[in-house]
């Protein structure tokens, strides 16, 4: 070992830190109990040594001068930015006392537990939420719950399980495993993998397939890296993905390009679907999507006639109006072409050894909390009364319903918020003002995070410092292999999300004191069916292990599990759906009062839907494009990262700029009837002339935190301009983050930025 380091720890990466959905392997070099260098772990089967910019910048994150290192309580009025250091005992005691007091007066449902995107948090926060007895576990701010859940719901209803594009990730030998077959085509649909790693998928895998000969069909409003290398590029109008999928289904069925044997034997409702898609001839679909008919036809032919092929999709599907239905139509594509759970197709994704790590769907909710959990939480869960689909799929409180209830207290008051891994006032909260008002209406807000941000500054009463992945124990089976996150060092008094939530869960539910004396005892219980313990996996298997690929009884081992009875709870061949088949006509939708067949709905704001508004605001604002330097609203304070992406920009087609007399680098207003934000223009031919790209999650840590500035969130945060209450009829999907109309114009002299509204502060002026 060079004397530059005392030791090297290998671990799996997850949040906090790089911020992402994690899964790659890292090597942490330690000197004098400090991490002095981070690099990718070449021996790790997932990432084979690759590492993104955020991982490489971890030392700047962990030892940043502004990192929150100990618990703090507010000592001034909210927004003044005055906080005082307290001990963990005082912090835990305050939460216990305040939450129990609210429970006594208003019931446990009066406390809402809020998280950001699905990183290493879903398990610990739902555990705490249910230990306290609240039904309200929520991604507050995320309009329409428009992040993966709509796609998960669609896959559950159509095929009983999620699936992902097969890039050999289910085998330790990866591309050298003889069971794997390289996909002929990968359809990269509304995602730019490689800039960040989406849910349980390493972004570089698509490129690994391309290097071996896989061709690309790219569907995106923007001319991305994959568009530039695609055999077929479909530059789609934002929000119309459902129409495109219906048109492609029609072309496939019309030409008989579907897998007749698979459809006849394993699908339910093909005839009804065939009738429905006839309503989407190419001429109509082309008019809706803005993509020429022949381009759609050729791309569809390439996908349907070259098997195996796969579809790797992204968030814009969830953000389509009726997101669950748009996702349903796309799932039907890999089903009727026989690309489901085959080598090189869309492989069904079950967690390693069938472990239940995080309630990812209703089956796992019941496995973790008992068969009556849905009935227990549905009586009071925000939105469960209104949306049958939501009441029967996953445990989320519906965010658009929840934020309104936090303001008007109907049907019951919500009085406090537990906020963990989400800087919603700088990140995901659509209708920024509404969420600020709702949080100011709370008697008590706790924020668990690593740095001050617009949310901590504006509404936090208590702040708890969280440990990064390099400072904590955790585990993941999302999906394969089973992996451990292993601590290398500790920093300040930071604790992991699991440590914090387990301690409070024990206080709210004393039976957990005995049952889970330590975090490892909890993990060992969850990992029991794998036959491994945390300690044994760490010492004997270097922190990760694949299921035995020969074990055909193991439901996490691919392929064609529907033939060998590895999917249905009764062990019979088929799928985990009511009919035991792939449901192209989804019987569960019938129960929920939703159309069982996919259909298309025009975005709430568009030239077609709102012609008068369109005259005023003729551009579609597409938010959410990823930066390789940041994850959502994180990392703006990290020098190595910020220098590469310094400004809140708006990407505009240069021809449009010429027409408007605006130049690259000018600061402009991006505005609509909800407000205006200022952004720096980046001329970019990647953009369609009808759209502008306004990256989300922007706030400026280098500016003032206390009111009225809140790190300039109200000046540059694109979610000042996005609405809530556009959710799908299922309750999931439809957040208008990619379809809201706007205009851009030069900033006139003397024009000022908007500041946060002044809302009554329910928590009082002199601290807590
Ligand atoms: S984005 Fe990918 S490479 Fe970066 S830390 Fe996350 S999993 Fe690893």
Can you give keywords for this protein?
six-stranded mixed β-sheet; seven-stranded mixed β-sheet; alpha/beta; binds iron/sulfur cluster; 30% helix; 28 helices
SSE order and pairing:
Blueprint: E1 7-12, E2 25-31, E3 34-40, H1 53-56, H2 58-62, E4 72-74, E5 83-85, H3 88-106, E6 111-115, H4 122-132, E7 137-138, H5 149-159, E8 163-165, E9 185-189, H6 205-211, E10 215-219, H7 225-228, E11 232-234, H8 241-254, H9 260-266, E12 267-268, H10 270-277, H11 282-289, H12 293-305, E13 309-313, H13 323-336, E14 346-348, H14 362-369, H15 373-378, H16 388-392, H17 399-408, E15 416-420, H18 432-440, E16 444-449, H19 454-459, E17 462-465, E18 474-476, E19 482-485, H20 497-508, H21 511-515, H22 519-526, H23 534-540, E20 544-545, E21 582-583, H24 587-592, H25 611-616, E22 619-623, H26 639-642, E23 649-652, H27 654-660, E24 667-672, E25 675-683, E26 691-694, H28 713-716, E27 740-746
Parallel strand pairs: 6-7, 6-15, 9-10, 9-13, 10-11, 12-21, 15-16, 16-17, 22-26, 23-25
Antiparallel strand pairs: 1-2, 2-3, 4-5, 4-17, 8-14, 18-19, 19-20, 22-27, 24-25, 24-27
The structure holds iron/sulfur cluster.
Iron/sulfur cluster is lined by residues 13, 18, 20, 22-24, 51-52, 54-55, 196-197.
């Amino acid at each position: 070992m060079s004397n530059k380091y005392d030791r090297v720890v290998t671990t799996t990466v997850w949040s906090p830190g790089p911020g992402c959905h994690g899964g790659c392997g890292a090597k942490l070099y330690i000197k004098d109990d400090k991490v002095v260098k981070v690099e990718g772990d070449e021996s790790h089967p997932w990432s084979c040594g690759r590492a993104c910019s955020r991982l490489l910048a971890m030392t700047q994150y962990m030892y940043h001068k502004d990192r929150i290192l100990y618990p703090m309580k507010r000592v001034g009025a909210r927004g003044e930015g005055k906080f005082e250091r307290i001990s963990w005992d005082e912090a835990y005691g305050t939460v216990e006392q305040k939450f129990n007091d609210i429970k006594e007066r208003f019931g446990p449902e009066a406390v809402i537990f809020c998280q950001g995107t699905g990183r290493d948090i879903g398990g610990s926060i739902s555990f705490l939420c249910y230990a306290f007895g609240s039904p309200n576990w929520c991604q507050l701010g995320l309009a329409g719950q428009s992040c993966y859940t709509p796609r998960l719901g669609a896959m559950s209803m159509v095929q009983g399980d999620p699936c992902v594009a097969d890039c050999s990730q289910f085998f330790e030998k990866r591309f050298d495993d003889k069971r794997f077959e390289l996909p002929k085509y990968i359809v990269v649909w509304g995602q730019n993998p490689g800039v960040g790693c989406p849910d349980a998928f390493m972004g570089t895998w698509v490129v690994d397939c391309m290097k071996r000969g896989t061709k690309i069909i790219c569907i995106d409003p923007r001319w991305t890296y994959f568009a530039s290398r695609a055999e077929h590029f479909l530059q789609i109008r934002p929000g119309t993905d459902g129409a495109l999928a219906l048109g492609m289904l029609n072309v496939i069925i019309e030409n008989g390009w579907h897998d007749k044997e698979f459809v006849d034997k394993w699908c339910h409702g093909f005839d009804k679907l065939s009738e429905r898609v006839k309503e989407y001839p190419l001429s109509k679909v082309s008019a809706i999507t803005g993509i020429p008919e022949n381009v759609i036809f050729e791309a569809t032919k390439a996908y349907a006639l070259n098997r195996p092929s796969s579809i790797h999709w992204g968030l814009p599907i969830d953000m389509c109006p009726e997101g669950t239905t748009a996702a349903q139509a796309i799932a039907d594509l890999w089903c009727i072409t026989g690309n489901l759970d085959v080598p090189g197709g869309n492989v069904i994704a079950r967690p390693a050894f069938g472990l239940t790590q995080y309630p990812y769907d209703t089956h796992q909710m019941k496995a973790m909390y008992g068969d009556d959990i849905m009935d227990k939480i549905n009586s009071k869960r925000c939105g469960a009364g209104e949306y049958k689909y939501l009441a029967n799929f996953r445990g989320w409180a519906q965010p658009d319903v929840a934020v309104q209830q936090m303001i008007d207290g109907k049907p019951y008051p919500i009085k406090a918020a537990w906020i963990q891994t989400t800087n919603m006032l700088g990140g995901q909260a659509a209708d920024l003002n509404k969420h600020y008002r709702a949080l100011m209406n709370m008697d008590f807000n706790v924020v668990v995070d690593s740095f001050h941000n617009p949310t901590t500054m504006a509404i936090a009463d208590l702040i708890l410092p969280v440990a990064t992945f390099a400072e904590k124990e955790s585990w993941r089976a999302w999906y394969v292999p089973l992996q451990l996150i292993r601590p290398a060092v500790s920093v300040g008094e930071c604790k992991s999300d699991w440590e914090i939530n387990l301690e409070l869960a024990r206080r709210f539910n004393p039976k957990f004191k005995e049952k889970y004396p330590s975090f490892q005892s909890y993990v060992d219980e969850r990992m029991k069916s794998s036959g491994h313990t945390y300690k044994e996996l760490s010492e004997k298997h270097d922190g990760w292990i694949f299921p035995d690929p020969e074990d055909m009884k193991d439901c996490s081992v691919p392929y064609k599990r529907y033939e060998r009875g590895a999917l249905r709870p009764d062990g019979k061949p088929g799928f985990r759906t009511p009919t035991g088949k792939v449901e192209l006509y989804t019987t569960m939708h019938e129960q929920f009062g939703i159309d069982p067949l996919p259909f298309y709905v025009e975005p709430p704001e568009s030239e077609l839907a709102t012609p008068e508004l369109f005259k005023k605001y003729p551009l579609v604002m597409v938010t959410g494009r990823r930066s390789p330097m940041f994850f959502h609203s994180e990392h703006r304070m990290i020098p190595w990262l910020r220098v590469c992406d310094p400004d809140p920009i708006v990407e505009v087609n240069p021809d449009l700029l010429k027409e408007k007399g605006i130049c690259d680098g000018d600061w402009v207003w991006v505005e609509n009837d909800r407000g205006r934000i200022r952004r720096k223009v980046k001329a970019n031919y990647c953009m369609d002339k009808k759209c502008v790209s306004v990256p989300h999650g922007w706030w400026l840590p280098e500016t003032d935190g206390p009111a009225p500035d809140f790190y300039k969130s109200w000046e540059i945060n694109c979610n000042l301009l996005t609405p809530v209450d556009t959710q799908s009829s299922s309750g999931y999907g439809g957040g208008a983050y990619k379809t809201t109309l706007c205009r851009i114009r030069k900033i006139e002299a003397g024009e000022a930025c908007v500041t946060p509204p002044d809302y009554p502060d329910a928590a009082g002026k002199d601290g807590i």
